[in-house]
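Session log. Operator J.P. requested a structure for one protein chain; no other inputs attached. Running the standard single-chain path with token output.
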Amino acid sequence: MRNFTRQFILLGALTALGQTAIGQVLYENFENVRRVAYSFVSGVLTQNAANPAANGVNGRAIVGRYVRNASQQFDVIVINPLAPRLADATPYLTGAKKISLKLYSPAVGKAVQIVGQDKTKSATGYPNGNPGGTFNAPTTVANARETLTFTHTAGAGGTFDPTVKPTAADQLVMLIEPNATTGTTYYLDDLMGPELLAAAPVVEQRYENFEKVRLLNYVLKKSSGGFNGDTLNNASSAANGSTRVGRYTRSTAQYDVLVVRPKQRPPTLLLPSP
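Structure written below.
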């Protein structure tokens, strides 16, 4: 899967209008914290495996088990935050903050690497979408759980995409034993990384009150029953004192539907260039 990466960097996204950054986060513990999804894996990822070596480093019962694909020289786990993007990862580039992962490995000296990508550009082929360096952490114990702490190393020219800005990362890729052909089994837990951007808050909006607010169209040809969008309120009360309301007469169909569409798309929000 070379179109994902060989050289890696984890960079964040600039906080955009309507979004805010939350603190350094635990992305995944395979139990009660699940802030990421896995859109592609070369090998086999089991997300509810029993912890084979619970200890003081990680005593949880459930972890992730990953069996590497021996046919893939650059075997990958593609990780997508459930939040819109990563936040500013500058402290991780300077070493002020660290990416970490709890890992059970069968051997010492096995390389683990992580990349942040612009996933749209990365889909067009290596090294597109990959900004310029690697986060690396070799294993130091065998058949035991340890906490890996990743260190950033700048990449050489030609191994990354210079068009990708430090504000563009919206996907992570993890490689275990890159540039190898083994089918080794590893156990993962407690992946921690850069801050995430929280989704823009939901703004409550009234679509329809059948008087002054009329933002919907009713697709009667695709609806089952009978609809009248301009009728007198038959039971005015404190709960609803409107004069006009909508009246719908349900059909006899088991799954009766009323199809509605917004009259127009919301306006596009243009943000200043970073």
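Operator note: The longest strand covers residues 185-193.
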